[in-house]
Specification:
Number of helices: 11
Strand content: under 5%
Length: 215
């Protein structure tokens, strides 16, 4: 835990587009790392000085998320279910905060929601990093996988960037570490709210489509 804290400290002190991309790649892969330590502080920094642009923060964060998702996708596709579950049950897997139950939960979520789960899953904290694994195991086509992953990741990163902007706008916080702490406190609640809003919109569109078909 101390080494993770040191890495987070380094990230918060050295934020730039490359750091955002690399650590969002790590966050989106099977290696645990909080996105709240990357995007909200970077967005806050973009508002506090001219070294970064908040829109580019979202772009590079989403690029990193795509790269991390592709790592999980191809590892799962090439290694197969037995090795993935063996890793989940290993000591190294547990160090990466992955266990058999979490992988099985991600698989069940994928089975229930199909390809769209790679979109919705990006908005769910407990599923976000692992949803690419069942997509790879199922051999989901890479085009739809990347499309849904990019859309979901872009929404989540936009939420985190907005959080960083709001912290800059409405608080007196002076350091990226303070921003990280506050963002961690509120990001999950906001993420679930955004997910609920997206679900409502999708259900409304489905309802409208069914009404048109009846006519």
């Amino acid at each position: 835990m101390e080494s993770v804290a040191e890495v987070i400290k380094w990230v918060l002190e050295n934020l730039n587009y490359w750091v955002v991309t690399v650590f969002m790649t790590i966050e989106s892969s099977f290696i645990p790392f909080p996105s709240e330590a990357v995007v909200p502080p970077a967005a806050w920094k973009a508002m506090a000085d001219d070294s970064m642009n908040i829109v580019l923060v979202v772009v590079f964060a989403t690029l990193g998320a795509d790269l991390g998702a592709l790592i999980n996708y191809y590892l799962a596709k090439w290694l197969g279910r037995p090795i993935v579950y063996k890793f989940a049950n290993s000591r190294l897997g547990h160090l990466c905060l992955i266990d058999e139950e979490s992988v099985r939960h991600a698989e069940e979520y994928f089975r229930k929601h199909g390809a769209a789960s790679t979109f919705f899953g990006r908005l769910i904290p407990a599923v976000r990093q692992l949803i690419s694994i069942p997509a790879g195991l199922a051999g989901m086509k890479i085009g739809p996988f990347l499309l849904y992953t990019t859309l979901g990741a872009a929404i989540w990163n936009s939420v985190l960037a907005l959080l960083g902007y709001l912290i800059y706008r409405f608080t007196d916080l002076k350091t990226t570490n303070d921003v990280y702490v506050m963002a961690t406190k509120y990001s999950h609640e906001i993420g679930y709210f955004i997910l609920a809003a997206v679900v409502v919109v999708v259900l409304f569109l489905i309802y409208k489509g069914m009404k048109k078909k009846k006519k």
